[in-house]
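Practice problem 4.
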């Protein structure tokens, strides 16, 4: 998917960066509006994120604060040591109807930070302290942005020359090029068609995502499958059973590095805004339990959802590849 942006808001200090020039050339039909600071647009009060979904604007900015953060405790660390995420961009072109970004930001507009070299320097500083595990596609889906922004290539190139960095690029998108470096992990989030149709309407179909996974495998890339978030939907047992059967039939899991499983969860702080942004989404209207500052499904729902995927994958002999967020 290559998003078209009717408007590009451009921080004056971002003008001279090569990424800015490339993006302005790419979107030469967009109206460019000069701004002082991205927050003047991105954080403007009383935005209607639902209305903006039909016509998102792109904001090009320089990130002059911290760029790489400690990851949240509800994220799977795959047994890796120092676990960070990079805020390469903010917001996502896909707008899934359960996405925590809708609870975190009051807008659907997308910020791309163009001072890529500064991120790499900050990462190099972290690497001086030891090996780093970095999720670069976190407050966005860099795969979905890959036809717009050069960020994926930048992180891939950096990881290629920094073997102590293990890079995870997580996506629901269909990416068309892969590297086979052992420290670059392409993490594909897969969902049943019933979930895609209801809550991930702008993302590629399950078949398209599976085809993309198989392309990555064919290129000997490191592939991770993410069954996360599992969503409690009508007939979930039937849907997820059918789904896992399809995965087993269509992907050679012996060629997959690992598999993560987790149910929907969100910070309690974000849920009210998420519900406001997606008032018709049954995925976010569920009467969640609260645990340690997060809204989660009750324990029995979590264990039933996880059990479907886990049991089938264990039966098929892939129990040793599973990482489960209980
Ligand atoms: S693809 Fe991921 S980041 Fe993008 S809207 Fe969907 S859940 Fe959010």
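Answer key:
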């Amino acid at each position: 998917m290559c998003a078209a942006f009717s408007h590009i808001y451009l921080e004056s200090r971002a003008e001279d960066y090569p990424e800015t020039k490339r993006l302005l050339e790419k979107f030469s039909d967009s109206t460019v509006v000069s701004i002082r600071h991205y927050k003047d647009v991105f954080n403007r009060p009383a935005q209607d994120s639902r209305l903006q979904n039909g016509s998102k604007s792109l904001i090009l900015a320089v990130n002059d604060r911290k760029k790489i953060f400690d990851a949240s405790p509800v994220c799977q660390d795959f047994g890796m040591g120092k676990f960070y995420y990079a805020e390469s961009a903010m917001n996502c072109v896909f707008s899934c109807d359960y996405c925590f970004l809708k609870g975190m930001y009051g807008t659907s507009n997308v910020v791309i930070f163009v001072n890529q070299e500064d991120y790499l320097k900050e990462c190099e500083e972290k690497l001086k302290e030891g090996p780093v595990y970095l999720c670069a596609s976190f407050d966005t889906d860099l795969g979905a942005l890959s036809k717009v922004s050069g960020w994926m290539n930048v992180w891939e190139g950096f990881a290629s020359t920094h073997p102590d960095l293990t890079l995870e690029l997580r996506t629901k998108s269909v990416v068309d090029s892969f590297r086979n470096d052992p420290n670059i992990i392409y993490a594909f989030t897969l969902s049943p068609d019933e979930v895609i149709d209801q809550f991930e309407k702008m993302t590629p179909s399950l078949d398209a995502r599976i085809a993309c996974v198989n392309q990555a495998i064919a290129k000997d890339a490191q592939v991770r499958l993410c069954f996360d978030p599992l969503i409690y939907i009508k007939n979930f047992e039937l849907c997820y059973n059918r789904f896992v059967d399809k995965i087993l039939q269509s992907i050679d899991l012996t060629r997959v590095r690992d598999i993560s499983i987790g149910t929907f969860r969100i910070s309690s702080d974000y849920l009210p805004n998420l519900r406001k942004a997606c008032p018709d989404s049954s995925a976010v209207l569920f009467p969640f339990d609260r645990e340690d500052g997060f809204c989660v499904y009750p324990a029995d729902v979590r264990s039933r959802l996880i059990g479907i995927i886990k049991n089938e994958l264990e039966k098929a002999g892939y129990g040793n590849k599973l990482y489960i967020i209980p």
